[in-house]
Design a protein that fits this description.
Elements: E1 2-10, H1 15-30, E2 42-46, E3 50-52, E4 57-58, E5 74-82, E6 90-97, E7 108-113, E8 123-129, E9 132-136, E10 141-145
Parallel strand pairs: 3-10
Antiparallel strand pairs: 1-2, 1-8, 2-7, 4-5, 5-6, 5-8, 6-7, 9-10
Amino acid sequence: MLIAITGQIRNGIGAAAQTLSHQLPYIVNEFPEVAACRCGSINLKLEVPLMVLIPDHRTKPIAWLPGNPKTEVFDFVRIELEAPCDAPAVPAWLYIPHRSPHRRELRVHEVITRQLNLAGVKLCRIKINRPTFQLSLPQFPLVIVV
């Protein structure tokens, strides 16, 4: 079942570029398919809220920050990304750090992929090809990835 969701690119604070440079070497040991991703994420505000119940991969707890024993778990969902909408889709992943403040907002998701030229791109589309269902509640529509 394929679902497509449009999202608006939002400027982030630039933290993912720095944190992913520390995190990716640990993540790639368990989940090598993200090895070619650039150290940085694309922040998307989706047109509908999206909740991931079962990711394609969940890491073990990783102590990724040098000198800090705190650990973090990361979830990944395989997607395709059109940037801009209707451009040829490229492989990408929803990147879901468990300690990220983005987890509180179901419409905001981070995407990682290879280096892309996003100059002037405002809207993207993600495509998820796995079981999902939609709650069509008037006050709170929601897509759930299972």
